[in-house]
Amino acid sequence: MHLKYSEEVKKALDNNSPIVALESTIISHGMPYPDNVNLASELEDICRNNGVTPATIAIIKGEIHIGLESEQLEYLGKSGEIEKASIKDIPQIIASGKSGATTVAGTLFCCNLAGVKVFATGGMGGVHKKAEETFDISADLHALASNRVILVSAGAKAILDLPKTLEYMETLSIPVFGYKTNLFPAFYSSKTDLKIKSIESAQEIAAVFNTMIELNVKTGLMIANPVPEQDEIPADVINMHINSALDAADQQNITGAAITPFLLQYIVNETSGASLKANKSLVRNNVRLACEIAKSLNVIKK
Questions:
Q1: Which of 281, 180, 271 is nearest to 229 (CA)?
Q2: Mind listing the pLDDT tens digit for each residue in 272-287?
Q3: 157 is catalytic
Q4: For residues 137 and 139, what is the distance between their CA atoms, to the nearest angstrom?
Q5: Residue 103 to residue 101: CA distance in whole angstroms
Q6: Which helix H or strand E contains 263, and what residues bound it?
Q7: From 117, 157, 280, 295, active-site residue
Q8: Which of 48, 55, 81, 82 is deepest in the core (most CB within 10 A)?
Q9: In terms of DSSP bridges, do strands 53-60 and 100-102 run parallel, antiparallel, or are they unpaired?
Q10: Are the CB atoms for 182 and 225 separated by under 8 Å?
Q11: Do 179 and 289 touch, CB atoms closer than 8 A?
């Protein structure tokens, strides 16, 4: 299976203790060093402080690691040779003995392989603007439709076509709930005018997911957790910067896999770092909620 568990994760599995998965793209491709490693370490500490074992996932020298040591976090953060690992990339990276940082899709796939049921990220991918022309739809959506994992996310990335993203999740039969909200959040902003079903507690989320298992529903479950209001960027403000970023991408002919990192970095620059502050806040918030869900799921399992 090409899986290698850290001692911490192996112990949690042996003891049937709660585990929360964390992605590694944010380390290798999301932020500069040392901010990337500091945030990754902080997210792991949030898990431990909440009585949950963190399982940061990455491919290192041809093996899928479920849980990382501190020196491995440093390696992912410093090395310039870490590939971006979506599902389609994982077999080649493993076969060639290379290293890769897992995207949301890649992490969902690895969670399913490893038996980890709760995964916290910042924002998931979705249907890009002008997808009717470009067919640019993130692999995250199909990965969530085919891997039975609870994904805690601050909605989908605000640079996307959010109505189409929700519509496509409906087509894929992915259950989507807002945590204590019936309005879909938009990453940097806590709400849009897009209606979704609200769910009020970690216990209720765990109960829904357990029922999905009992009914053999094979999709994952998306929990949209709004960014804390004190750190959000109002939708009208961020949309102005997004439109400017999209115009710049068009002018520079940036498309495909390169467009999301380009847009996000452009917005960081345009907002003088406010978007990065919101990004860090929302991912911390998602990890905290994921911990409560993992503990609630563990109670049901026991």
A1: 281
A2: 989 889 999 999 999 9
A3: yes
A4: 7
A5: 7
A6: helix 259-270
A7: 157
A8: 55
A9: antiparallel
A10: no
A11: yes
Amino acid at 230: Q
- Angle between helices 139-146 and 104-114 in degrees, nearest 10: 20
3 state DSSP class of 178: strand
Q: Which one is catalytic: 8, 23, 44, 232?
A: 23
How far are the Cα atoms of 126, 144, 245, 274 from residue 250, in angstroms, in the given order? 19, 29, 9, 24
CB 82 within 8 A of CB 60: no
- What whole-number distance in Å separates Cα of residue 175 and Cα of residue 150? 10
Residue 88 has what DSSP assignment? G
For 34-68, write each residue's pLDDT tens digit.
Answer: 999 999 999 999 999 999 999 999 999 999 999 99
**Distance between CA 232 and CA 221 in Å, rounded?**
24
For residue 23, indicate whether it is catalytic: yes
In whole angstroms, what separates CA 54 from the centre of its chain? 14
Dihedral angle over CA of 36, 60, 25, 52, nearest 10: -80
